Amino acid sequence: MADKSSSNAYWKANIRMIQLFLIIWFVASFGFGIILRPMLMGIAVGGSDLGFWFAQQGSILVFLVLIFVYAWRMNKLDKEFGVEE
Fold first, then answer.
1. Which of 62, 65, 73, 83 has the most neighbouring CB atoms within 10 Å?
2. Are strands 44-45 and 48-49 parallel, antiparallel or unpaired?
3. Is pTM, for the whole model, over 0.85?
4. Which residues on neighbouring strands pair with residue 48, listed in sequence order?
5. Confidence at residue 2, expressed as pLDDT on a 0 to 100 scale
């Protein structure tokens, strides 16, 4: 990254991606597991309702997927801006 505009574009894309992943994580953990749990009670997953599943296991799985997707997207973004390792 030679110039300041390229650096600003890189960090803008990075922060936008982080914000998107945090929103997804919040919706999966707090939204589905706590706020929307009464609406998800009728949907059965593994012997319990979907809201309980998200509160106990689903949000953790979503978080793990987000970690791998973030690493993949950051490698792609680093190559795009020429700052890969």
1. 62
2. antiparallel
3. no
4. 45
5. 55
Q: Please state the length of the chain.
A: 85
| Model pLDDT, residue 21 | 96
Confidence check: pLDDT of 12 > 90: yes
Q: Give the pLDDT confidence of 29-74 residue by residue, as tens digits.
A: 888 888 888 888 888 888 888 888 888 888 899 999 999 999 999 9
The C-alpha atoms of residue 1 and residue 70 are separated, in whole angstroms, by 21
5 and 16 Cβ atoms separated by less than 8 Å: no
As a whole number of Å, the end-to-end CA separation of the chain is 13
CB 71 within 8 A of CB 79: no
Cβ neighbours of residue 75 under 8 Å, at least 6 residues apart? 84
